[in-house]
Design a protein that fits this description.
By secondary structure, this protein is an all-alpha fold. The chain contains 13 helices and two strands; from the N terminus they run αααααααααββαααα. The protein folds into two domains: 42 residues; 176 residues, no CATH class. A hairpin with a 2-residue loop joins strand 1 and strand 2.
Length: 239
């Protein structure tokens, strides 16, 4: 009988001990599971969060950029470098105002001989309008009555007189980028990297990454070579 009492007490003590220990362990497990559930609910892994806060470039499938005067298919101008909507490259409306001889002579003998990086800051029609001080009223009249002007959209013509950055927002397509106060296409961006790394380093890395993503959406997966990518990821500004 005495042995049974001792055995019963021992078993009772063991049950009490297990109950206390279990109560201490279960909250810890619950807290851990809750934290895990929060991570799952957010849908964002640590690596994804890091990539959003620390953007980085990657090497293009074709790491070099085609020169401005070449196109692998036609042998003409590389369309990937035409960073404005096509109306900007058409100055024919000025034939109605200035005469074709004046426009063609200036275009062939002066404008087209400028440096490529200068030209893309001030595309054809925009440049000539402001070089010859053509008024908006004259443009709108030509768009109503002129032989060449009728093909132009009036809102587009008005955009030629907007503040510079607003004009770019209205007329530049996704193949171009306005980075740190300067317009680039993929070729002139490569030239900047090769010739002036100090200026290149002042461009925002996030803006470069966004530009690369836009180009790839256009099917342009070239121009970001290993040297440029390594330099940009290390030295370009992060803000």
């Amino acid at each position: 009988m005495k042995r049974n009492v001792i055995l019963f007490c021992t078993l009772l003590s063991l049950c009490i001990c297990l109950t206390v220990c279990g109560n201490q362990i279960l909250p810890e497990l619950s807290d851990s599971q809750s934290a895990g559930d929060e991570n799952i609910t957010s849908g964002t892994t640590e690596s994804e969060t890091s990539s959003m806060t620390n953007p980085s470039l990657h090497v293009s499938k074709i790491p070099y950029a085609l020169p401005s005067g070449s196109d692998s298919d036609s042998g003409g101008v590389n369309a990937d470098l035409l960073i404005y909507h096509e109306e900007v490259y058409n100055s024919a409306i000025l034939f109605d105002i200035l005469g074709s001889d004046v426009v063609v002579e200036y275009g062939e003998n002066t404008y087209k001989k400028m440096d490529q990086q200068v030209i893309i800051q001030s595309p054809d029609l925009y440049h000539m309008i402001h070089h010859f001080n053509v008024s908006l009223e004259d443009l709108l009249e030509a768009s109503d009555t002129g032989l060449y002007g009728r093909q132009y959209n009036k809102e587009f013509l008005r955009s030629m007189y907007l503040p510079y950055e607003d004009m770019l927002s209205f007329t530049m397509n996704s193949k171009g980028a306005y980075l740190n106060g300067t317009v680039y296409n993929i070729q002139t961006l490569n030239e900047l990297f090769e010739e002036d790394k100090d200026t290149f380093s002042r461009i925002s890395l996030a803006e470069l990454v966004e530009y690369q993503e836009r180009l790839e959406e256009e099917g342009i997966d070239y121009g970001f070579n290993q040297d440029m990518v390594d330099f940009a990821n290390q030295y370009c500004r992060r803000s």
